Input
Amino acid sequence: MKPAIDMRKVERKLGDRQMAFDFSRPRGSITAILGPSGSGKSTLLNLIAGFLAPDRGQVLIDGTDVSHLPPGERGVSMVFQDNNLFAHLDIATNIGLGLDPALKLDGTQKDRVAASLERVGLAGYEKRLPGTLSGGERQRVALARAFARARPVLLLDEPFDGLGPGLAADMISLMLEIRADVDATVMMVTHDPREAESAADQVLFIDQGRIAADGPMSGFFERSDLPALSAYLRGRPEA
Ligand SMILES: Nc1ncnc2c1ncn2[C@@H]1O[C@H](COP(=O)(O)OP(=O)(O)OP(=O)(O)O)[C@@H](O)[C@H]1O
Output
């Protein structure tokens, strides 16, 4: 079977940081992306989503080279750290735009908007503006939008940050449910080892713009052969 995500010798320079990614992921897998601040985790997601173009190499999704396609045509949903809701549009419209940019929603799509809000515990919030919600509630709206779109690839950039442990665990369960519904392939950036272990089956550890480790989640934090991982877990840059 073709990999769901296939990054073939992708290179991209940002500022003076040269980044290089080469890996693939099977459909239905959940990968935690770990690594120090500034190592290139968000850049990796942006390259898959199409918000950044590679200088070299190819990005394949389900076997199709999408390197030159805009984000909306890649079959990818991304939830950002700052959840990027439109401040002047109500919650239902923000989610509806994810389903149809022209907002001509049919009955089924409207039901999906309402159902996704219910799933994240925000039933009845349809007419509220983002500014009237707490940070955690806005984050849940962003998740609801990604869930409602049900795209085959779901990219999450620290999506559960600031939700508190209970709610973050609820949102992880929800993410696992959604993934099972559509057999989605998930890649999530997180700084929380427990979150990574509870959600992911695989890991990519990024260090200085490169993949320092690519393997199963299970046992990853016990590895002693990766100096960059030890430094990361101690919370200090590598000497
Ligand atoms: N537009 C840009 N111009 C120049 N440099 C950039 C740009 N965007 C990112 N960088 C640099 O590229 C590197 C990787 O950034 P990236 O946001 O991918 O890191 P990250 O691992 O997601 O970090 P964090 O955990 O802090 O969010 C950083 O050194 C950053 O300063």
